[in-house]
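Dear H.,

Thanks for agreeing to be a second pair of eyes. The structure we're designing against is below in token form, covering all 101 positions.
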């Protein structure tokens, strides 16, 4: 199950919650407020999305996956930085800064 980052709209405390993609957002664990904002999907979820983009991971070669990662990661990272800011991306998705050798 994927992990999501939220920030409570009432007390502004960030928290993480694990739930299915189609499940409703959880309540704030601090104050119980129902209005929470999803910040970003965590890096493993992003990586999984990239692997899915690359096709069937059982058939795709390691090289194909690395190519796809190298191609998609800078684009994805830029999109996230534009939307959320450098700090949030560095904190939540440090693996996006990594490249394959
Ligand atoms: Zn709260």
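And this is the sequence the design step returned. I haven't edited it by hand at all.
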């Amino acid at each position: 199950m994927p992990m999501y980052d939220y920030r409570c709209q009432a007390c502004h405390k960030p928290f993480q919650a694990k739930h299915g993609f189609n499940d409703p957002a959880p309540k704030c664990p601090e104050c119980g407020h129902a209005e929470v904002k999803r910040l970003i999907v965590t890096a493993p979820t992003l990586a999984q999305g990239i692997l899915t983009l690359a096709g069937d991971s059982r058939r795709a070669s390691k090289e194909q996956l690395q190519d796809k990662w190298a191609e998609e990661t800078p684009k994805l990272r830029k999109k996230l930085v534009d939307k959320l800011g450098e700090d949030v991306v560095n904190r939540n998705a440090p693996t996006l800064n990594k490249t394959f050798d």
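Two observations from my side: The chain has a mean pLDDT of 80. Strands lie at 3-8, 14-18, 36-41.

Warmly,
E.
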